[in-house]
Design goal:
It contains eight helices and four strands, in the order H-H-H-H-H-E-E-E-E-H-H-H. The chain is mainly alpha-helical and 228 residues long.
């Protein structure tokens, strides 16, 4: 899915006048990362809102064979995994430092633990299996029952989602503040030649590169991310 907001024109960061400006390029890359993360955290919030509406019966699933609590749990899992991605090291993208975002990251850490110790690994006591066996009273033969006694703990009804929303709001505020600061810093750092180029550039010409980046035109959108 592509989000369209074509007010203005794409910033020509690849033009030699801008590409040779190392400090400007660093700011632009950081700004792009923060914008991407802002979209991610909004998606996290959307997942939780949808899960809540399903649980409350505000959204009704059309297919009767789909259990609503499975959908809500899947959305909750997706929300935590995507949230954790913002703070995990990533090639080609800025990551958030929890100590810069949160005055006290204890609540945040509790949800990162859900991802690290429960969803990505199995360090908690939640999902377990007790092996059963049965005995034939006549032959005394033993048969194992390996499948029927698994306990699975869904996360949707068992986590502090109000606390998670507090974390989400704090991340949103942090990113919004940094995005505004970087935008102002970029504009203030432009030299006269760069300003003249931007003021004289053709919007249609600049849009050509933008359209080439659309998902259906990329050769392999899931290839390794470039740092350039």
């Amino acid at each position: 899915m592509t989000t369209y907001d074509l007010i203005g024109a794409p910033f020509p960061k690849g033009e030699s006048l801008f590409a040779s400006d190392v400090n400007l390029q660093k700011k632009l890359m950081r700004l792009e990362s923060f914008i991407e993360m802002h979209h991610d955290i909004q998606q996290v919030a959307d997942y939780l809102e949808t899960a809540s509406k399903i649980t409350e019966g505000i959204i009704h699933l059309e297919r009767g064979d789909v259990l609503s609590f499975h959908v809500s749990d899947a959305l909750a899992v997706a929300a935590i995994v995507l949230y954790a991605k913002l703070f995990n090291s990533s090639k080609g993208r800025t990551v958030l430092n929890k100590n810069h975002v949160f005055p006290d990251p204890v609540l945040h850490d509790s949800f990162i633990d859900v991802r690290d110790k429960f969803l990505a690994h199995q360090e908690w006591n939640a999902n377990k299996h007790q092996i059963f066996f049965s005995q034939d009273s006549k032959s005394l033969q033993i048969r194992m029952n390996p499948y029927g006694q698994t306990t699975r703990i869904p996360i949707w009804p068992n986590l502090n989602w109000d606390g998670f929303n507090v974390c989400i709001d704090q991340v949103k505020y942090f990113l919004k503040t940094r995005i505004e600061e970087l935008c102002n810093s970029i504009v203030e750092s432009l030299n006269p030649d760069q300003l003249a180029f931007l003021n004289g550039a053709s919007k249609n010409a600049l849009l050509q590169d933008h359209w080439a980046e659309q998902p259906h035109l990329r050769k392999d959108p899931f290839s390794s991310r470039s740092k350039s």
